[in-house]
């Protein structure tokens, strides 16, 4: 599944980021392959979303979240 | 002195690591610090000395890695690339988020640069009940590691000492650089960083910094409260500018009137008296009066940025702004434009997508800036009495708010048109860090206000005073013997009998102005602007306002002061009494005044903004298009408004 399919407060492990530039940008902002990501909030108009991983807390658009493959963690 | 050594250091770090605060502590120079990624819009430099070594400090915009994603990051990357062995790079890292901060640090080490690592926010680490083994850390990274707390100014001397005693060394972090695949290389880096952190940082305790922040976000990005709070803040801004600021403004207006009277009494009347009182003082008073509004506006915007709130506004506005070809990050430039388009356009650098950044730059000047406030204030007072109200609202305030909304609406509409016209294949993203909420650093807010007011008074003030003097000259002299002809005409007996002495003086003054050089300029463009309801005097103001809008008031002051020997009336009163010489009716009718107001909402009358647009877009094409499209918009809107109301 992809990150945009998660609902608020759901967690998942980042598997793969399909866009190279996005991957580099997210990696440098602390969103690392194999680590846990959590959807903190979905914006009032359903897009963008706020996600966290460790101490990193960013906003990302759904179109970009669609490019992030994840597996849901319990 | 030849025996003093000097060193260059470059401050680098992720956004929101306290880099700029450290810069202030090191150099004592103050500049803008924001809690918003990329608020350091331009290169900041400063100096300090330690142990007879002069150290030059350069502060750069925050970056996440050496793979730049925005204009800001490209600037920082360029400086890192150009640093040689004499340049020391001080990397400022947020110690509560070491993993991410070390990525940039190790990348720079692997570029073969000379590096010192400053670990900032040590107090938060202690609050999280974590500890870090600094000597071990230094050994693994093979570079000096200095714990600091920039906010409380702790560890600054240690850092200065480390800078002064730094010995160059060859260093590397990853042994086999695999630059063919940047993603794999980054993952390798993170693996190594992870093991270092495991070795050097106690893993008990937790990062609590975000707990409160997330709670606040539940309210500030809420689907109802989020927008309500944002609207309330906008309302607060208007309230501040138009209500609270009026008290000090009245005092300043009174002060300048008294000063003018005082000076015109001590300088013997004549040319010099006229120049000082009606040229310089009138122009100067016209700008100083707006200092309270500008100070308040910049204070609010700085506080909103510094607390971290702006990032949340971007977040809840992204979806809406995207429809107009803008980006959530465009909210900073658009909101800052209510103060001044120049810093606003510079802050658009954080927008990674070229098209969105360009559209933001192109439409920002349509949002009414503080320079329009004087024009709005004085014109509205001509058609709406001060105490008239609509329900509980003050009519003047409502009208000003309507003009602001008109500007914002026009900006969005223009953006929509440009979204359709400008083509771009570049993908648009909105990856923006949400900084933790912090109380604003009041000292920095104070310096920000001080700096902005200083720029307004001195940079804009210089232009305004120069133009005031030129205007005074242009309106006080005429080609040939024109002035003498007028005087001899009025000296004849016939006219003397019909009018009182005072009337004759003001008739002479207005006829003189008409034949003066300034009058000639105004008369030349009169045919073009007459359909908008403007006469040649307004024409002069339009010409001079092209340098900067606030010049309008100064121009009006100068034009209507020339010949007013007593100088006892404010500009507003003089304009109110101005008559159309042909019809004898009031010149500033509702139609003319509204038409003029609309013209000032839309027209691109700011040379400084055009210069910045040229610099930021690196092309003459965009400022040119901006002047033309805003000019046409202004002209035809005014034409429409004048015809509706006349």
Q: If you had to describe this structure to a student in words, what would you say it looks like?
A:
The complex is a heterodimer of chains A (74) and B (646). With 74 residues, chain A is α+β, with helices and mostly antiparallel strands. Chain A has 2 helices and 5 strands, in the order βαβββαβ. In chain A, a hairpin with a 6-residue loop joins strand 2 (36-42) and strand 3 (49-53). Chain A starts with 10 loop residues before the first strand and ends with a strand. With 646 residues, chain B is α/β, with parallel strands linked by helices. In chain B, helix 11 (271-288) packs antiparallel against helix 19 (442-476), helix 11 packs antiparallel against helix 25 (551-561) and helix 16 packs antiparallel against helix 18. The longest helix of chain B has 35 residues, at 442-476. The radius of gyration of chain B is 29 Å and the shape is elongated. The A-B interface holds A 19-30, 32-33, 40-41, 43-48, 50, 52, 54-61, 64 and B 64-65, 67, 69, 96-97, 99-100, 103-104, 182-183, 186-187, 190, 207, 209-210, 213-214, 217-218, 221-223, 226-227, 311, 314-316, 318-320, 328, 427-434, 436. Strand 4 (56-60) of chain A pairs antiparallel with strand 9 of chain B.
């Amino acid at each position: 599944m992809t990150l945009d399919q998660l609902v608020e407060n759901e967690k998942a492990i980042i598997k793969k980021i399909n866009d190279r530039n996005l991957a580099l940008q997210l990696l440098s902002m602390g969103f690392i392959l194999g680590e846990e990501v959590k959807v903190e909030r979905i914006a009032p108009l359903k897009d963008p979303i706020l996600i966290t991983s460790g101490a990193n807390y960013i906003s990302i658009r759904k179109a970009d979240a669609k490019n992030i493959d994840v597996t849901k963690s319990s | 002195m030849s025996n003093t050594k000097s060193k260059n250091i470059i401050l680098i770090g992720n956004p929101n690591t306290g880099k700029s605060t450290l810069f202030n502590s090191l150099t004592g120079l103050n500049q803008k610090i924001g809690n918003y990624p990329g608020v350091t819009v331009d290169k900041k430099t400063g100096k300090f000395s330690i142990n007879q070594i002069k150290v030059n400090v350069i502060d750069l915009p925050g970056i996440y890695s050496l793979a730049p994603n925005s204009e800001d990051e490209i600037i920082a990357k360029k400086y890192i690339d150009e640093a040689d062995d004499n340049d020391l790079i001080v990397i400022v890292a947020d110690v509560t988020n070491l993993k991410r901060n070390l990525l940039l640090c190790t990348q720079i080490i692997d570029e073969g640069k000379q590096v010192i690592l400053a670990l900032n926010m040590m107090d938060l680490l202690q609050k999280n009940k974590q500890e870090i083994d600094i000597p071990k850390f230094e050994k693994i990274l093979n570079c000096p590691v200095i714990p600091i707390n920039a906010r409380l100014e702790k560890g600054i001397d240690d850092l200065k000492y480390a800078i002064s005693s730094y010995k160059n060394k060859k260093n590397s972090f990853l042994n086999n650089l695999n630059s063919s695949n940047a993603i794999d290389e980054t993952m390798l880096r993170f693996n190594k960083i992870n093991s270092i952190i495991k070795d050097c940082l106690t893993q008990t305790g937790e990062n609590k910094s975000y707990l409160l922040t997330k709670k606040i976000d539940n309210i500030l990005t809420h689907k109802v409260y989020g927008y309500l709070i944002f609207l309330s803040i906008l309302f607060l801004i208007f309230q501040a500018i138009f209500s609270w600021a009026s008290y000090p403004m009245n005092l300043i207006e009174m002060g300048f009137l008294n000063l003018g009277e005082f000076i015109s009494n001590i300088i013997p009347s004549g040319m010099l008296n006229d120049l000082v009182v009606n040229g310089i003082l009138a122009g100067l008073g016209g700008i100083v009066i707006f200092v309270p509004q500008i100070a308040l506006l910049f204070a609010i915007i700085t506080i909103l940025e510094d607390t971290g709130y702006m990032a949340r506004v971007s977040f809840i506005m992204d979806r809406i702004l995207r429809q107009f070809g803008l980006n959530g990050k465009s909210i900073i430039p658009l909101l800052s434009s209510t103060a001044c388009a120049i810093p606003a356009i510079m802050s658009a650098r954080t927008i990674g997508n070229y098209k969105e950044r360009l559209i933001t730059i192109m439409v920002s000047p349509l949002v009414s800036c503080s320079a329009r406030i004087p024009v709005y204030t004085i014109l509205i007072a001509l058609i709406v009495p001060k105490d008239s109200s609509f329900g509980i609202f003050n009519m003047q305030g409502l009208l000003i708010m309507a003009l602001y909304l008109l500007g914002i609406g026009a900006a969005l509409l223009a953006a929509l048109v440009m979204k359709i016209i400008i083509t771009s294949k570049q993908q648009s993203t909105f990856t923006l860090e949400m900084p933790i909420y912090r109380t604003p650093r009041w000292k920095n807010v104070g310096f920000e206000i001080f700096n902005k007011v200083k720029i307004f008074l001195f940079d804009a003030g210089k232009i305004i005073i120069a133009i005031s003097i030129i205007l005074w000259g242009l309106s006080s002299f005429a080609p040939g013997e024109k002035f003498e002809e007028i005087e001899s005409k009025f000296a004849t007996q016939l006219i003397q009998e019909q009018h009182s002495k005072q009337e004759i003086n003001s008739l002479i003054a207005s006829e003189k102005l008409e034949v003066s050089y300034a009058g000639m300029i105004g008369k030349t463009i009169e045919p073009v602007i007459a359909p908008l309801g403007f006469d040649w005097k307004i024409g002069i103001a339009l010409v001079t306002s092209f340098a900067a809008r606030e010049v309008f008031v100064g121009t009006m002051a100068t034009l209507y002061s020339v010949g007013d020997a007593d100088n006892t009336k404010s500009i507003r009163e003089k304009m109110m009494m101005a008559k159309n010489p042909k019809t004898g009716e009031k010149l500033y009718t509702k139609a003319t005044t509204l038409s003029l107001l609309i013209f000032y909402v839309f027209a691109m009358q700011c040379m400084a903004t055009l210069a910045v647009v040229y610099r930021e877009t690196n092309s003459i094409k965009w400022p040119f298009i901006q002047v033309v499209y805003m000019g046409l918009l202004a002209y035809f809107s005014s034409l429409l408004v004048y015809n509706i109301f006349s």
